[in-house]
Amino acid sequence: MKPSVVAIKQQEIFKFNARAKSIPGAINMTVGEPNFHTPEHIKQAAIKAIKNDQTHYTVPEGDHKLLGAVANYLHDKYNLNYDPETQIIATTGVTEGVFSVFNAILRDGDEVLIPSPSFTIYGPDADFNGASPVYLDTSKTNFKVTPSMLEEVIKTNPRIKIFLLNYPSNPTGVSYTEDELQALANILKKYDIFVISDEIYSELTYNFKHISFGNILPDQTILLNGLSKSHAMTGWRFGVVCGPAEVIAQVNKIHELATTSITSITQYAALEAYTNGYDDPLAMKEQYQSRRDALFEGLKELNMECPTPDGAFYLFAKIPAGFEQDDVKFANELLEEEHLAILPGSFFGIGGEGHLRISYAASMENIAKCLSKLGQFLKSHKN
Questions:
Q1: Residue 32, CB half-sphere, CA atoms under 13 Å: how many?
Q2: What would be one Pfam family of this protein (predicted)?
Q3: β-bridge mates for residue 134, sequence order
Q4: Quick one: which of 92, 35, 82, 18 has its CA closest to 60?
Q5: Is 26 in contact with 337 (CB distance < 8 Å)?
Q6: Is the peptide bond prior to 39 cis by the omega test (within 30 degrees of 0)?
Q7: Please, which pLDDT band fits residue 2 given cuts at 50, 70 and 90?
């Protein structure tokens, strides 16, 4: 049964961020969004749309010229082949995409398999739609799902309807090679399970080429992507849901009930991004990689171990031995004493305990300050 909305808890991330913002001068390394501005040509396209009074309803799935541009972009970037007329809808960010897909697919008693640590909306979305989240602890396998652990949990939980895979990952930054994805697909294709593949960080992959699960297992995969991270467009709220036509038709019914359609101005901005913004992510990606390397090396000097991030803009650092291992207490004291805000790993679920998520979507200056403040805190708190 779906729970009462009263039972839903506010996200701990939001409460922690609100506290950090209340402290004057605090260095905030919690933010999961680019610290770049939307490219100028995209802003100008939106301004032009407003001036031309293109401010009316569109069809619920999104303007079909835009959907065609999305299909072309996904084909050119990732060799994906989606029919823009039947296999793509535009959503209010990936957040709405997750909610609409879950609402369309899940029934009371279903289960959703979620590798953990994970982004914080997946479990509550499953709960709210009458399903139960099944968390798969990946902390002992370098924060990746292995084929053996995947098959074992599917066999012991026959009510799993969805496997939710987010890569590159928030919060850990790890991703999967083509061989690793194929090995997972070899397990999944034996079962009647949907793969919801959240690939919002696909353009920010550093160590190898991003391969979409939509290519690996197309008949079972529903792909989520968008422009928030790749084109610094978090506030525009643009996402896409792609997949088999018969599934997308049902998802669009939920999307239609929830939103009618996303804003026309955002759609014109997205059309420009997908048509003329192929290279927009490159300069940002280059800077993120430099920041990643600086932060990674700095944390290593502080004896804070973390997996090498393959993408996104997060490091998931282990609190060193000999220090307070309660990550919530650690993060709160760090904020109080050093005015440095980084998120407790346990906010992201099972396997996150004793870790801290640090965003490097920040300036090099703030990364240096973060490392300095962390060093001071560790020096004063060593047991």
A1: 16
A2: Aminotran_1_2
A3: 113
A4: 92
A5: no
A6: no
A7: low
CA 301 to CA 248: how far, in whole Å? 48
Of 97, 135, 94, the closest CA to residue 117 belongs to: 135
The residues facing 195 across adjacent strands are: 163, 221
C-alpha distances in angstroms, 82 versus 68, 71, 85, 214, 240?
Answer: 9, 6, 9, 9, 12
Contacts of 150 (CB under 8 A, 6+ apart): 136, 163, 184, 187, 188
What is the rounded distance in angstroms from the CA atom of residue 113 to the CA atom of residue 168?
17
- pTM: predicted TM-score of the whole model, two decimal places: 0.96
Sign of the torsion angle spanned by Cα atoms 284, 289, 291, 295: positive
Delineate the domains of the chain, giving CATH numbers in brackets.
5-38+280-381 (3.90.1150.10), 54-276 (3.40.640.10)
Residue 83 pLDDT grade (very low, low, confident, very high; cuts 50, 70, 90): very high
Stretch 360-370: mean pLDDT, rounded?
97
Q: How far apart are CA 254 and CA 252, in angstroms?
A: 5
What would the pLDDT profile of 220-246 be if each residue is shown by its tens digit?
Answer: 999 999 999 999 999 999 999 999 999
Pair of tokens at residue 366? 């703030």
First vs last C-alpha separation in the chain: 48
Whether omega for the bond prior to residue 133 falls within 30 degrees of 0, making it cis, is no
Residue labelled with tokens 């799935």: 61
Tokens of 224: 């989520």
- Strand 239-242 and strand 88-91: the pairing is antiparallel
Name the amino acid, one letter, at 115: P
What's the chain's length in residues?
383
The amino acid occupying position 217 is L
Other C-beta atoms closer than 10 Å to the C-beta of 258 total: 14
